[in-house]
Amino acid sequence: MKNNVTEFLLIGLTQDPTKGKIVFVITLAFYLATVLGNLLIIVTIKITPALGSPMYFFLTCLSFCDACLSTITAPRLMVDSLRERKSISYDECMIQIFTGHFFGCMEILILILMAYDRYVAICKPLHYLTIMSRKVCSILVALVWLASFVHSVAQIVVALSLPFCGPNLIDNYCCDLQPLLRLACTDTYILNLLVVFNSGALCIVSFIMLMISYTVILYSLRNHSKEGRYKALSTCSSHIMVVFIFFGPCIFIYSRPLKTFAADKMVVLFYAIGAPFLNPLIYTLRNKEVKTAMGKLWSSRKTLHKKQ
């Protein structure tokens, strides 16, 4: 069937110009805080030798993902909140779907790597440096990029195969497969099953794996010293909080049939902007080593400024 649609119209969060300005200000504040917060974590880890362990290497990857995931959605939401006609071209929509799934999948896989890193560190401490060597970590991250690319290609192949011949109004503020499946001029039942199997199963299976992993890790802490248990619990609790914050919306969005819920927009907003904003806060507020390194970085910056 011929595709007659060259652009899509987005309903957005609100049609009220005054509320649109409020959305712009709030989104801008969250976006700047997200990008700056994650960049601060990356810079702090890169220039601090004490933060050279695999856990912090994976944390820089997670921060990079959060900054990119927020950038996919927030700037367009800000621009559209000030426009009366909120449109996105067909090509831009496809790019948004590809990049959104790419960095979303990457975040899931990095969270799995972080759980595996904690498992090795706590359950196999004598072999930690051998198992989690720098070379191994680099290979694992490269595999994450490859797997994310394959996942995104599968999503975009489905999106490009959809024929559109009439309605082009998306009841959201961004492009994704579920809204497009509702607009397609064909029976999308099988395609929806494929999407749920691809994205939904990825979210649910990964979440279950992570919960099992952290259960094993926490159970193994019974044999550690009180100080060791406290430090491990502090690190693992931060990871578990991030897992729940990210996977809650992810499972809600991708693990269900084609049906619109009133909470859809807020859940997508939290997934794309809220979670990337909260992650750096959780890791900095609950990680003493990162807070100490950031404090030293700030102190050295003030000292340098005074000398100038």
Task: Report what the structure shows.
By secondary structure, the protein is mainly α. Helix content is 76%, strand content 3%. It is built from ten helices and three strands, in the order E-H-H-E-H-H-H-E-H-H-H-H-H. Helix 3 runs antiparallel to helix 8 (226-254). The termini are far apart. The mean pLDDT is 84.
The CATH H-level homologous superfamily: Rhodopsin 7-helix transmembrane proteins
The parts where pLDDT drops under 50 for at least 5 residues are none
At CATH level 3, the topology is: Rhopdopsin 7-helix transmembrane proteins
What radius of gyration results from the CA coordinates?
Answer: 21 Å
| First-last Cα distance | 67 Å
Mean pLDDT over the residues: 84
Biggest β-sheet, characterized? 3 strands, mixed
Classify the secondary structure makeup into a structural class.
mainly alpha
Q: What would the principal axes of the Cα set say about the shape? A: globular
Number of strands: 3
Please state roughly what percent of the residues sit in beta strands, choosing from under 5%, 5-15%, 15-25%, 25-35%, 35-45% or over 45%.
under 5%
Specify the CATH architecture. Answer: Up-down Bundle
The total number of structural domains is 1
Could you give the topology of this structure?
Elements: E1 7-10, H1 17-47, H2 54-81, E2 87-89, H3 90-123, H4 128-131, H5 134-161, E3 169-170, H6 177-183, H7 189-220, H8 226-254, H9 264-285, H10 288-307
Parallel strand pairs: 1-3
Antiparallel strand pairs: 1-2
Helix pairs in contact: 1-2, 1-9, 1-10, 2-3, 2-9, 3-5, 3-7, 3-8, 5-7, 7-8, 8-9
